[in-house]
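Our preliminary data section would be incomplete without showing what the modeling component actually yields. Below, a chain of 118 amino acids is followed by its predicted structure, encoded as tokens that our downstream tools consume directly.
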Amino acid sequence: MDKIFLTSLSTEAVIGIFDWERKVRQRIEVDLEMSLDLAAAANTDSIDDTLNYKAVAKRVLAFVEKSQFQLVETLAERIASLVLAEFPVAAVRVTVHKPGAIRNSRDVGVIIERNRNA
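Predicted structure:
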């Protein structure tokens, strides 16, 4: 299966379990790896035969900016569900980064993989 990826989509959202985290927006980064057959697009050289990754990026960023989850696990799951529901992909791998959340660590986050048939 072929893949289209987006790396380091960056925005801010309310996320976290502590009271102070519910009052501020924190930086969130999202990586997406989406599986689909790209043979038709390669043959036709037409955007109509592939995934418009700009549309995916805009939709995911808008969703994250409006979200107010406590857990990055929930955010990742909802992003995966959104991508599978709204775009023609067979599977998606979502990485949600919450940089700076842990002192003395550059980054923390989760990686989930979901597919349309599950």
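The mean pLDDT is 95. The two ends are 17 Å apart (CA to CA). Preliminary results of this kind motivate Aim 1 of the renewal.
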